[in-house]
Amino acid sequence: PLDKDDLGRSTWGFLHSMASYYPDKPTRRQAEDMSKFFNIFSQFYPCEPCALDFQEDIKKHPPKTDSRDHLAQWLCERHNTVNRKLGKPLFDCSKIHERWRDGWKD
Ligand code: FAD
To answer: 41 CB less than 6 Å from ligand 1?
Structure first.
């Protein structure tokens, strides 16, 4: 089985990549489905304490699914909330597409 950290790294990779490739101008249906995705995801994420805290967090901060940039920034903030809880450095959310879509500029 994946341990909590491997599961977390893989999952964040998937979630941030998905947000970085979400449409700039989603249809109403896509926006609703993406909100549902995160609500359902938070119920079944296979680390119970992680899932419970994430459910609370997205209740306070519902998914921003009206554009790619809003979704990517929203998710970056959610990840930073977990980083803060775990005492990890916070990520600079202005670099989100560089990290997860375009590749680092050098
Ligand atoms: P990760 O935090 O896994 O990050 C992977 C990479 O993402 C980093 O190397 C960095 O390049 C990039 N990154 C970092 N921060 C951001 C950001 N804000 N936005 C975009 N990219 C970023 N673990 C627990 O112990 N307790 C929990 O309650 C918990 N809850 C979790 C909830 C969710 C929804 C998920 C997906 C994971 C959770 N985890 C939890 C796992 C935890 O977040 C980490 O994945 C794990 O500790 C491994 O950390 P890491 O240092 O390898 O980097």
So the answer is: no
